[in-house]
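Why does residue order matter? Because the sequence determines the fold. Keep that principle in mind as you read this record.
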Amino acid sequence: VNGNARWRRYVISEFRRNSQETDTNVISSLLMKARSYAYLINSVDFHKETLLSYNISTSREQDQRKKVKATAERVGFSLPKSSSNAEA
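Structure:
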């Protein structure tokens, strides 16, 4: 979500759409909703970083395969053909 222009536009439009609101109950509800969204975004980001730190990621595995293949080629070797190396 960080850096996502579409998400940013949505959040800005929601706050602008409700900028003339005067009912304190509605305002409190909207602020609670905004805090919940922020908490969700931060939690998802933290979860993603935690998974990556434990190497639980398909993209991380693919990156590692590419690095191994590149290293092998650099020293004149080639990896054996297999279904797991076909994607690298």
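The chain is about 70% helix and 0% strand.
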